[in-house]
Specification:
By secondary structure, the protein is α+β, with helices and mostly antiparallel strands. 27% of the residues lie in helices and 36% in strands.
Length: 135
């Protein structure tokens, strides 16, 4: 039994130290995925007057309107990405799939951006959706 623990003790100790090192490295990467991105230089930019688009069912051809019809979006990200980011890559949408005919409502504005870019602020973050009356 004693031979089980002490035979090749140096290799066993080396394996244990290596396993602990690998575990801590992987654990740190899992716990702090933004740590690498945060270390690079980050830039903040605001895009104004971005149009608000509708997302609705294909069969729905109603003439929806939103007030206001544009929003301002503040985004941040690494300088390398922000230097090539264009306003056309930022899309503000409103989901109208559950809209009822003739009933106006307020809906949250969803913003999609390219990978690596973070949405900071959307102003206004909700819009009034004006639903036309069905005849």
């Amino acid at each position: 039994m004693r031979e089980l623990f002490f035979k090749d003790f140096g290799w066993k100790l080396f394996s244990l130290v290596l396993a602990v090192f690998i575990w801590f490295t992987v654990h740190k990467l899992i716990e702090e995925p933004g740590a690498v991105a945060a270390s690079s230089t980050s830039k903040l930019v605001t895009y104004s007057n971005l149009p608000v688009f509708f997302v609705s069912t294909a069969a729905d051809t109603s003439a929806y309107r939103v007030q206001p019809n544009s929003v301002s979006v503040t985004v941040s990200g690494p300088s390398t990405l922000m230097s090539v980011l264009d306003a056309s890559q930022i899309r503000a949408t409103v989901d109208l799939t559950d809209a009822e005919p003739g009933r106006d409502f307020t809906e949250r504005v969803n913003v999609s951006v390219p990978p690596g870019i973070t949405v900071g602020n959307v102003a206004p973050d909700t819009v009034r959706v004006i639903v036309p009356l069905k005849h």
